[in-house]
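Box S2. Input/output pair 1.
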Amino acid sequence: MARLTVHTLDTVPSEAKARMEAVQKANGFIPNLIGVLSNSPQALAFYQEVGKMNGSNSLTAEEVEVVQITAAAHNGCDFCVAGHTKIGTLRLKMPNDVLEALRNRTNIDSNEKYQALAQFTMQLIDKRGAVSDEELAAFKAAGYNDQNVLDTIMGVALATLCNYANNVGKTDINPELIDYAPKR
């Protein structure tokens, strides 16, 4: 059961109502994460605005999802694993073996570049950004550059907000996402 209020359109603070209505219109439902984040209209705005920037950074759409699924799995956020797996599956048509490796934090044997990105994402989280020279060099050797480094950090920052909010709140996974949730 959720430990933080999961707002609906009927209970949402007025400062967050327009944002929540836009989510309903775009998705056909309101993910419980949005209901939780709307407890702080600023947190909801941060999520949506940084999310837009994250979606148009130097990484491909698939690489953005590599960062998001990796961070969610690494941070133990089943809600975000489910949501980003759905995006990777339906919108981006990412290969199932890649998605399963990300969800399980195992090697992505079919794509060395995605593997390097997932590994670097976990190193950023584990070391709070203080990666070694060798770890940074390995990431760049996989074909990434300085802009990609910072855009990966931005993705981790966005994931941290969502993962931690869901972990603190024990946010229930919506029925629309449950088929994409990790099987435990």
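Box S3. Input/output pair 2.
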Amino acid sequence: MNILLINHYAGSNIHGMEYRPYHLAKEWVSLGHNVTIIAASHSHIRTKQPEVMDKWTEEFLDGIKYIWIKTPEYEGNGIKRILNMLSFIKELSFNIKHIVDQIEPSIVIASSTYPLDIYPASRIAKKANAQFIFEVHDLWPLSPMLLGNMSRFHPFIMTMQKAENDAYRKAHKVVSLLPKADQHMIEHGMASHKFTYLPNGIAVDQWLEANENIPPGHQTIIDELKLEGKFLIGYAGTHGIANALEYLFDACEALKDDPVAFVLVGKGPDREKLIETAKQKKLNNIYFLPVINKKAIPDFLSKMDCLYIGWRKSPLYQFGVSPNKLLDYMMSGKPIIHGIEAGNDLVAEAQCGISIPPEDPEQIAFAVRKMMNTPEQTRKAMGSSGKNFVMSKHDYKVLAKDFLKIMK
């Protein structure tokens, strides 16, 4: 098959996030299919932007043909990001015949976070007589409405809402990373038979081959904490509002007489504020370490006794969550403390830790003490259960084959 995947933010092993299009495409290529990814030249989530010479730049990576469409640079969520989106959609719309003639797709997948790309994607599919699949990562415009407090009557939101509704009507099939998103989608015009849940994934082989050590400074702090007999709870990921890390402070206060230390690595918009708050509270059992390379994440996680991830309370999560970070945690073979109230709970499903209500410092402290008092063999069994769960259900080798079944 000739598969065309349109994802504004698509990345690669070289460019960084977003990884899902790259890993799925790499597996499809290995199975004998031709895959083209069309993406924008600038994305706020990539660590490295592609080098583009003109409006359209082609690049081959691991057998995948990338077409980078030159778009304006931007930061944050202001007007420049909207101009970046519109530039990408415009170029797609003006080059539909060229895309069809060049790629001759039998499958067209629209997979950007926002739904506007469904208009050129559906036209490409129609002209090529191809199957059109709409892949939903986050529910837009519901996400910016609930997380960004945007009015449903904002022109941007109203435009996105029309696009979402049209997407469910135009698509032959709808794939979602959120297991219970069909409830929302049916309310917005999707026929129920179109829906398939295909969760987030992880490249197991790549994860197992990641053997970079954490920086010496990180190792020194961890060694000192272990010499003091501390039970280490690790966190690796973004320090932002969605991660609800401020609830760790009261938990640290409650655990001040326990041999416990929280060790956080990463970056994000709230990191400096969190560090300052910890200083003001004079907490000596929480440590903020600088971000580390992705290939050093397995080494960091392996040095922890258990891992923590928490969510905010939000009606958005009733449709489920699908975080990359949690899959890394489970692959590490460590038990997990999971603060969640959502439509799904991978930790509970895999029986690989303790699930607690979100935004609750007392419950965090309770879970930490419970984990500390759990026999080491039981904690290892929890960790093994999580790792086996991920390898059997979330490896991209598995997900790519499952996606092909949807296409057929």
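Caption for Box S3: The chain is about 40% helix and 15% strand. The mean pLDDT is 95.
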